[in-house]
């Protein structure tokens, strides 16, 4: 590869020599001789490969963002929750990639669930970001990376989603308040206190599901979401929601 590159440079150099003074031509020749072609021969393919990988990741993120920001439907339809989780992980990568690794245990035979996909995706995003913040807050020096575990499974007529972390945990005296609107223990500007309130509304009120939390200080937290495969829940006004 570099041999072709050198040959091309030599041709350019010959042209330059014809139009330049002897000193300028000699200086150009010397610079060409000083280049470590053997080093470049090994590094250029690596750089190109890394660039292609980077472009591939950008393409994946853009596609995930397009899916995540797609205008939501008011009508429930059947969706693949595993796919929504994968999209959410990609969209939220900047929140977790510096402090945690993701372990996925997604059931391959998970049935599609009748739901509002954009709102379910927002729930997954809120809990995933909270998990990343809990890990980062428990490890301010960034010496070790935590773990966020996301699992799905079928439980008779329900699908269960578990999102756990080994972060700071939630103190027992505030666990009953975590779903209250605007309640947060995060620093000003870090959280709005709306994430879990929205999650509770979407899962319980809009999808007739359940959301529960098990937590231990300095050990971590696990949120378990249960959604009926076929939902007939009501919207925020108490009216029955349509299904396609």
CATH topology of the largest domain: Heat Shock Protein 90
What are the segments in which pLDDT stays under 50 over at least 5 consecutive residues? 234-238
- The CATH first-level class of the largest domain comes to Alpha Beta
Q: What is the strand tally?
A: 7
SSE succession:
HHHEHHEEHEEHEE
Widest beta sheet: strand line-up: 2-4-5-7-6
In round numbers, the mean pLDDT is 79
Per CATH, the architecture of the largest domain is 2-Layer Sandwich
In one word, what is the shape? elongated
Instruction: Give the biggest sheet.
Output: 5 strands, mixed
- Structural class comes to alpha+beta
Range of strand content: 15-25%
Which percent bin holds the helix content? 40-55%
Give the full name of the CATH homologous superfamily of the largest domain: Histidine kinase-like ATPase, C-terminal domain
Q: How large, in whole angstroms, is the Cα Rg?
A: 27 Å
Multimerization status: single chain
Distance between the termini: 57 Å
